[in-house]
Structure to design on (110 residues):
């Protein structure tokens, strides 16, 4: 279920974080912000996120960014009240985070 490599703050190094990791580039991001999800929180959130269209056979590209990093970026934005373009560099680009957020919002997940 959990599958992408992140250097977590509160678990053993190299724990897997997102069920789609085998399809995106491997990135390591330290778990440094108070708004980052814990493994227990992520275990609840991950199954709630919809499968991407390409995985359901509806076309589209494979995801290149870790979903946990996307969720952590959204939580960081909410926690700090910053602009999308002001995300720290260790998160995926702000436009990418916004696109995921908008798609999940349209699907009624937020």
């Amino acid at each position: 279920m959990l599958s992408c490599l992140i250097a977590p703050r509160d678990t053993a190094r190299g724990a897997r974080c997102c069920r789609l990791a085998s399809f995106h580039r491997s990135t390591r991001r330290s778990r440094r912000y108070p708004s980052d999800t814990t493994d227990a929180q992520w275990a609840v959130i991950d199954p709630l996120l919809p499968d991407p269209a390409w995985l359901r056979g509806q076309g589209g590209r494979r995801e290149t960014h870790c979903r946990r990093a996307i969720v952590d970026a959204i939580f960081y934005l909410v926690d700090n009240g910053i602009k999308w373009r002001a995300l720290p560099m260790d998160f995926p680009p702000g436009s990418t985070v916004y696109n995921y957020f908008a798609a999940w919002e349209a699907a009624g997940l937020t």
Remarks:
- Residues 21-106 form one domain.
- The longest helix spans residues 67-80.
- The chain has a mean pLDDT of 78.
- The radius of gyration is 13 Å.
